[in-house]
């Protein structure tokens, strides 16, 4: 686990991800991520997943 990265979700959600949403699992999960600092519970699941995908595509280390 990393300090920053997509928050880990339960494994039983995996079948519901699209290919693009599943890309969030290509990086280490983190304690906090873009979705948590950008609105947390005020965001929809689609918005949270979009922010996780954005993080994966813009990670710089």
Automatic annotation (TrEMBL):
Keyword set includes Nucleus: no
Gene source species: Jejuia pallidilutea
Entry keyword set: Transferase
MF annotations from Gene Ontology: phosphotransferase activity, for other substituted phosphate groups
Annotated InterPro entries: Bact_transf
Protein name per its UniProtKB record: UDP-N-acetylgalactosaminyltransferase
Record-annotated Bacterial sugar transferase domain positions: 1-60
Family, as annotated: Belongs to the bacterial sugar transferase family.
PANTHER family in the cross-refs: COLANIC BIOSYNTHESIS UDP-GLUCOSE LIPID CARRIER TRANSFERASE, UNDECAPRENYL-PHOSPHATE GALACTOSE PHOSPHOTRANSFERASE
Regions annotated as coiled coil: none
């Amino acid at each position: 686990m990393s300090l920053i990265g997509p928050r880990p979700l339960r494994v039983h959600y995996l079948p519901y991800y699209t290919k693009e949403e599943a890309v969030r699992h290509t990086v280490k999960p983190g304690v906090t991520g873009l979705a948590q600092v950008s609105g947390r519970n005020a965001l929809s699941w689609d918005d949270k997943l979009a922010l996780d995908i954005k993080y994966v595509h813009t990670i710089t280390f």
